[in-house]
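# nightly structure sweep
# worker-07 picked up a monomer target from the shared queue
# config: single-sequence mode, recycle default, output format = structure tokens
# input follows
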Amino acid sequence: MIKYENYKPSGIEWLGEIPEHWEVKRIKDLGSLQNGISNGKDYFGFGSPFVSYGNIYNNTVELNLISTLANSTKADQKLYSVLEGDIFFTRTSETINEIGISATCKKTIPKATFSGFVIRFRPYRNRITKEFSDYFFKAHINRLFLSKEISLVTRASLGQGILNNLPVLILPVSEQIAIAQYLDSKTQTIDKKIDILTRKTSLYKNLRKSIINDAVCRGLEKNTKLKDCGIDLIGLIPEHWEVKRIKDNYTLFTGNSISDKSLFENKANSIDYVSTKDIDVNTCNINYDNGVYIPKSDKGFKIAKKNSILLCLEGANAGKKIGYTEKDICFVNKLCSIKSINKNSLDKYLFYYIQSPLFERQFFATLNGLIGGVSLSSVKYFDVVEPTKEEQTKITEYLDEKTQKIDCILDNIQNQIATLKELRKSLINDVVTGKIKVTV
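# output follows
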């Protein structure tokens, strides 16, 4: 690792020393900020390109990757233009971690405007190259600054007052270009490795789903006679199996939201609180060690008993995040708890059944795109294919063994991906702050 010959204090504690010939400026000294446009739904659906919050969050500020259109006027297009070199920041979100995410426009998008959930920074000419800004504003040091400042003001919005004070390192244009080229090469290598591992993840997820599907749709005996159950979304099932509604054999209820997590951080005499993010979408494992707890004395919170199924009903993860509790827990209102009330219906069997296409077809056929979810009352009437209790037990034991092996592989792959992402983040941070020298 090559260092610069001479360093000097940056004057910023968390930034430390910087190369002697670099400067520290604030965004307000380097360009101008502009909030985006906010209009009603009638403004959208036709017209000119519209850069959305999602385009910034996913780093897709390119004409061919923009799907939203807006009926913008010439005045709108002038004030809220999207030009080469513009840097955009996400302005609002439910969490601090999603605020201040940046994306750089690499090529002017004619007649485009941008969202009110976004702030545009337009730098003065010849101070920050688009190639360097694409890396610099994604660096971890900026996340540290923005997270700290936002937490002092609000947990919902990034204002121009905060963003104006974001420190920016200014270095010769030739070095900016060299740094960007170096990081292009290094990050592409890392990204290729991540892509290979991600494709492996997809293969193992499909294998996991296939094993579950075969077991809960056809059973473990391959020569079993089948019958048409009379339900199009389910089709053929073993002739001695039955079809029941979930409400016939299980009790269902949603959890409770919490408004201030800081009130529930004392683990003593408390019960774990699980939210949607604590469920692994690949392995269905639940992270109980999230630092959020509910006092046992608080009787206002519903409790999912040990060996209950948790199913996400709302949001982007509706029908995708499914967990199985190893102990009594409290849980968020976007999740529903499902627990057997019939001795012949096994909770673990239903846990696997819910992961199969037989359940998914019903769930996603009912999914309301406007509200982004499925109601609890609808889930109660979903059909469940039930073998005998003895077969449920055998299927559950078989799937426990098979899925545990695959889940171990998936966990290992995810750990490798996380390590590579951390390496990528550290590399970018160290290079754009001068901790590592890139030769021109």
